[in-house]
Write a structure and sequence with these properties.
Layout lengths: L2 H32 L9 E9 L4 H14 L2 E6 L2 E4 L10 E10 L3 H14 L14 E7 L4 E2 L4 E2 L8 H9 L8 H9 L5 H9 L10 E7 L2 E3 L6 E7 L14 H13 L4 E5 L12 H15 L9 E5 L3 H9 L4 E4 L9 H8 L3 E4 L19 H18 L7 E4 L8 H9 L1 H9 L3 H4 L4 E2 L5 H7 L8 H13 L4 E4 L2 H18 L2
Parallel strand pairs: 10-11, 10-17, 11-12, 12-13, 13-14, 14-15, 16-17
Antiparallel strand pairs: 1-4, 1-5, 2-4, 3-4, 3-8, 6-7, 8-9
Helix pairs in contact: 1-9, 1-10, 4-6, 8-9, 9-10, 11-13, 16-17
C-alpha cells in the first residue's frame, strides 16, 4: 500500500471517529437534557507553553500535542519554534520552546492534572528544578481567570521574566486584539502597552538570533536557522513544457549535470517540478506527475553532492506530496496553498514536514484571467488570502513553525501588481501580523526568476535572457525581507544574495 493511501486511510479514520464521537455526544446531551442535568461546562481559551531539552525534542513536541488533543484540549494556534540556551540551571542541553493557544472544557486544576500526566507518561521524573526534561507543559493563561492556589498560579508567575516564554506567547496573538479574553491577558501583564510592551522590554525581535535565542524551522532532522542568511532554492524542472527550461533536463546525464551545477554555484535547496504551472499548461494527473518525478527523485537523493542539502518538490497534489516524502523529499512547495487538492493540508500535517504555501487565485489555466487580476490593494488582499490558507493549514494540524509563505509573484498578478508585491513585502508581513504574529514571522520565499513581467519591463521576450532583471528583483526582495529566493540561475543570484546579506548585517550595527 502506498504511503498516500495509508495517510488517507488514517485521515478517514479520524474523521469517522470524530463523527461517531459527535453523534454519541448528541445522544448523551439529549438524554441528560431530559433529566435536567448540565453535562457541558463552558469552553475556555487557554495558552500552554512547551519546552524540551532531552531526547528528540521535536518529536516530544509532536507527541505532547497529540496527547493534549486526545485529552480534551483543542489546539487552534501555534507559536514559532525557538531554540534557546537554558535558564537558571545552565549546565544542560539547549531547549526547544514554543506555545499553543486553544480551548478546553477542563477546569484549571483538571487541566493541570492532564498536563502533568502527559509529562509523566513521556518520561519526565522529579529532579532538579529547571533541570533537563523531555517535556515541560505550563499553563500561561486560562480564559480571563486568575488562579492562585497551593498547586497552581495563573497567569504563570514567571512569564514576565522569560523571553523564551514571551516570544512564543506573542506569536499566538495578532497586533489587533481579537477578543475580550486576549484583552484580559494584556491587563494581566500590568503594562499599559500589554503583552507586546513586555516583549519589547525584554528585547523583542532584537534578541532573535543572539542572546541564546534562535527562531528555527525543523527540516531533514535538523533545526534550520533560516534567518541567519538568505537561502537559495535552485529550480530544476523535469518537464517538457515549462516556460524557461522545459525539456532541457529530461535525460539522466543532463539532470545530474544541472543538479551539480546548481549545488556548485551555491544552491541550498533543489526544487524539483514535474508539472508545469505556466499559464495554460496541460494539467497532469497525480499518477502522470509521479511517473515523471520519481525516477529523478531516485537519482538526486543518491548523489553525494546532496549531503546537507534539501530537496523540495513543487506539486499541488497530496498524493505526489506523500509519495515524494516517502522517497526522500524534505519540503513540499504548493503553488495553490492547498486550494487545488482538499486533502493536501491533512496529508502534509501527517507527514510532519515544512510546507510552502503560495498565493494564487484559480488554477494555472485561469490565474491570469481578468477576474483573478482584480485587486483594490494587492498587498493587503494577497496577505489576507495567504493568511486564510495558512489558517486552514494550521487548523488541519500543520503548526506555524512548519510553514513558509510565498506571495506568488507572477501568479494571478499583472506587471504592476508584481512590482507592488516586491515593494510591499513588509506590508504583507504587517497585514498578516494583524491576525497572527506567528504567520507573519514565517520564512518568506519569493520566486520572480525569469518571469514574464521582467521581460515586459526590460524588453526581453526570451525567458533565458532575463537573468539580469532577476538579480535586480531578487535584490529588491531580500532587502525588503525575503528569506528564501527561488531562481534558475543560481550563480549570478548567489553573488546578489551575499551582497544583500552583508548589507542587512550592517543594518544591525
Amino acid at each position: 500500500m502506498s504511503i498516500f493511501k495509508k495517510l488517507m486511510l488514517a485521515n478517514c479514520g479520524v474523521r469517522a471517529a470524530k463523527k461517531t464521537s459527535k453523534e454519541s455526544s448528541l445522544r448523551l446531551s439529549r438524554f441528560f437534557h431530559d433529566k435536567l442535568v448540565e453535562v457541558h461546562s463552558k469552553e475556555q481559551e487557554v495558552v500552554i507553553a512547551l519546552g524540551s531539552n532531552v531526547g528528540d525534542r521535536l518529536h516530544n513536541f509532536d507527541e505532547a500535542l497529540q496527547r493534549m488533543k486526545k485529552s480534551g484540549i483543542h489546539i487552534a494556534r501555534h507559536g514559532c519554534l525557538y531554540e534557546t540556551e537554558p535558564a537558571y540551571v545552565t549546565d544542560q542541553p539547549h531547549f526547544l520552546n514554543s506555545a499553543v493557544r486553544g480551548t478546553t472544557k477542563l477546569e484549571p486544576h483538571k487541566l493541570l492534572g492532564v498536563l502533568k500526566d502527559i509529562e509523566r507518561e513521556m518520561g519526565r521524573v522529579n529532579g532538579i528544578r529547571y533541570g533537563p526534561r523531555p517535556i515541560d507543559l505550563d499553563i500561561l493563561f486560562y480564559g480571563n481567570q486568575r488562579v492562585n492556589t497551593d498547586t497552581l498560579i495563573i497567569p504563570h508567575e514567571r512569564i514576565w521574566e522569560r523571553p523564551f516564554v514571551m516570544g512564543p506567547l506573542v506569536d499566538l496573538l495578532g497586533s489587533d486584539i481579537d477578543n475580550d479574553t486576549v484583552k484580559s491577558w494584556d491587563l494581566f501583564s500590568g503594562s499599559p502597552g500589554g503583552l507586546f510592551a513586555v516583549w519589547e522590554k525584554q528585547g523583542g525581535e532584537s534578541i532573535i538570533g543572539k542572546d541564546g535565542m534562535k527562531r528555527v524551522l525543523p527540516v531533514a532532522s535538523k533545526l534550520w536557522n533560516w534567518s541567519s542568511r538568505t537561502s537559495i532554492m535552485g529550480i530544476l524542472n523535469v518537464t517538457p513544457d515549462s516556460f524557461s527550461d522545459g525539456g532541457r533536463f529530461l535525460s539522466e546525464t543532463s539532470f545530474i549535470s544541472q543538479v551539480r551545477l546548481l549545488l556548485s554555484e551555491g544552491a541550498d535547496i533543489i526544487d524539483l517540478g514535474a508539472q508545469s504551472t505556466r499559464p495554460m499548461a496541460t494539467k497532469l494527473s497525480p499518477e502522470q506527475e509521479l511517473d515523471r518525478l520519481m525516477p529523478f527523485l531516485e537519482i538526486i537523493k543518491k548523489l553525494p553532492e546532496m549531503e546537507g542539502k534539501l530537496i523540495s518538490v513543487d506539486t499541488f497534489y497530496s498524493q505526489v506530496a506523500a509519495e515524494s516524502v516517502s522517497m526522500g523529499a524534505h519540503l513540499i512547495n504548493d503553488v495553490s496553498g492547498g486550494n487545488l487538492d482538499s486533502n493536501m493540508h491533512d496529508v502534509v500535517a501527517a507527514l510532519k514536514i515544512p510546507y510552502i504555501l503560495m498565493h494564487m487565485r484559480g488554477n494555472p489555466s485561469t490565474m491570469q484571467n481578468q477576474e483573478n487580476l482584480k485587486y483594490d490593494n494587492v498587498c493587503a488582499e494577497v496577505a489576507s488570502e495567504l493568511y486564510t490558507r495558512a489558517r486552514d493549514a494550521e487548523i488541519s494540524g500543520i503548526p506555524a513553525w512548519r510553514m513558509i509563505i510565498d506571495p506568488g509573484i507572477g501568479f494571478s498578478k499583472d506587471t504592476g501588481q508584481n512590482l507592488d508585491i516586491l515593494n510591499g513585502l513588509p506590508t504583507i508581513r504587517s497585514e498578516i501580523a494583524q491576525r497572527s504574529m506567528a504567520m507573519s514571522r514565517a520564512p518568506m520565499l519569493i520566486g520572480p526568476s525569469r518571469k514574464r513581467f521582467l521581460g515586459e519591463i526590460c524588453g526581453r521576450p526570451v525567458a533565458a535572457r532575463r537573468d539580469s532583471a532577476t538579480v535586480a528583483a531578487i535584490t529588491a526582495g531580500i532587502l525588503a525581507g525575503a528569506n528564501i529566493v527561488r531562481v534558475h540561475n543560481v550563480g549570478d543570484n548567489c553573488d546578489a544574495v551575499k551582497l544583500c546579506d552583508a548589507m542587512l548585517q550592517r543594518r544591525k550595527f
